[in-house]
Amino acid sequence: MLLRRFASNVSALRAKDVSINAFVAFNDSESVSSNGPLNGCTIAVKDNICTSHLPTTASSAILKDFHSPFDATVVQILTKNGAEIIGKTNCDEFGMGSLNIHSVHGPVVNPFNVEERRAAGGSSGGSAAAVAAGLCHAALGTDTGGSIRLPASYCGVVGLKPSYGLVSRHGIISYADSLDTVGVLAKDVSTVENVFGHINKHDYRDPTSIDERVRERARNLSLEQYESNRHSNTQDLKGLRIGVPQEYFPSELSSNPIISSIRNILSLLRSRGATVLPVSLPSTKYALSAYYVIASAEGSSCLSRYDGIEYGLRVKPPGEENNIDTSAKIYAHTRSHGFGREVRKRILLGTYALSADAFDNYFLQAQRVRQMVRDDFDSVFFVSNILASSSTTPKSRKTDGVDVLIHPSAIRTAPRLPIADDAGEPESASRDTLQDYVQDVLTVPASLAGLPALSVPVPQAVRNQNVEKGDGWPIGVSVVGQWGSDELVLKVGRIIEEMERNGL
To answer: How many Å apart are CA 189 and CA 370, to the nearest integer?
Structure first.
């Protein structure tokens, strides 16, 4: 797909971003990108992805003005292929948040209607808002428990969290190493697919990067059945089996306009030949607790490097000038002043989970639940999980199962931004914590299992079918596949995207 270069210059981008706050830094250099297949494609990069020519702060005071000496692998690949990195985007501090309000740079305002001051979602809210506002063709984000899919849903763009291990994490400021995944946001599936196709490569510098042979085997297994049933008529979906996880459609939300829109999507897919089946993922109810234990524990470990001594912010404690032993005080003062409230809470939770008294009851138990979640997904998919097999050539299919799962990306449209307190922190009292809990249940399980998940905007024509049309803000539908089936997930996402274009 040939992408046209934006005619607007950096000054125009800055002016447009004033009311959105999607960017924390713009690329003012006049260097010309290399020629390549992505020539003319402007890409924004989340502020927790290292860039040598722009600051990388992870939206934290503890990394104020930090400049990486190197580019992350994904940035290197994109620039080598001709893409133009136009700036760094706002995010929740170290990726810890779902509304992009925990940032030293201030909150991101959803560009769908800036006057209403609604959240762009987090933690990759700046990347989603930049795409939605037309400031770039695509943006890189990271997803630990829904940080790409939720902003994509709130802002009305496409967001892909790839299979864990397909995209290099070298040069990513870690939050939770076993969960962090680099992904892509854009206005359409084709652009996401184009950018993802370039960064979907093995990287020897990332110990979690999957070998090319394994990823190719998983791709072929996932497409085998789908391609064998395709016809020249692209509207004929015969052979595509779609699972609807019952745990993602709680009875409490039966009258929700979002649920109604997803059901309309499923009805349209069924009318075109797809088989829609109810499936059960019974461990879903335990997933969120396990996620917060694992993510917080890994976050506590990863963020221990910010000690005020080696690099980053340093806060001098009283007595340092008198040569008193203040190592512990430097550590405590720096972290107390440098980390925001949400990060401090998660560090404390994670540190406790890793303590000797709690390790067995919390961290190890959470890992057992994580395996239960993976087993649930493996039990409903046609294709075997190639990573769970003792061989790289497992039996291609079970006797039954589905190709993909479809469910809502979010249980609500973008909420209004909370009012900040005197310290500049968002008031927790103004937020519906129960809704936050239900929301995370929709995105966390796929992250625990390391599966590909794509959020696609529900076409306007589909939303208009509802008796209750809601508030008119974007709604996202998620497509989830077996590990390595990213290409199949994108194909199904494109089918949903094209519903409006091809007529209902």
So the answer is: 30
DSSP structure class, residue 8: -
User: For the chain, what is the total number of helices (H) and then of strands (E)?
Assistant: 15, 11
Positive or negative: CA dihedral 321, 327, 329, 334:
positive
Q: Please, which pLDDT band fits residue 323 given cuts at 50, 70 and 90? A: low
Tokens of 441: 């249940």
Give pLDDT tens digits for 392-451.
444 444 568 999 999 999 989 999 998 765 555 665 544 555 566 668 889 999 999 999
Q: Which domains does the chain possess? A: 10-212 (3.90.1300.10), 213-279+401-502 (3.90.1300.10)
Amino acid (1-letter code) at residue 275: T
Q: Can 300 be counted among the known catalytic residues?
A: no
How far is 193 from 182, CA to CA, in rounded Å? 14
- 86's enclosing H/E stretch is strand 84-89
Distance CA 479, CA 493 (A): 7
Task: Say if CB 144 and CB 177 are below 8 A apart.
Answer: no
Catalytic residue among 33, 123, 124, 174: 123
Q: SS3 helix, strand, coil % of the chain, rounded to 5?
A: 40, 15, 45
What span, in angstroms and rounded, lies between the C-alpha atoms of 125 and 147?
Answer: 8
Q: What percent of the chain has pLDDT over 90?
A: 72
* Known catalytic membership, residue 123: yes
Residue tagged 């080696």 (tokens): 310
Annotated catalytic residue, options 33, 68, 98, 147? 147
Residues constituting the chain: 504
Beta bridge partners of 184: 140, 160
Angstrom distance (rounded) from CA 311 to CA 28 = 26
The tens digit of pLDDT for each residue in 112-138 reads 999 999 999 999 999 999 999 999 999
In 308-360, which residue ranges form alpha helices assigned H by DSSP? Answer: 327-338, 341-353
How far is Cα 188 from Cα 248, in angstroms, rounded to an integer? 25
Q: How far apart are CA 489 and CA 232, in angstroms?
A: 20
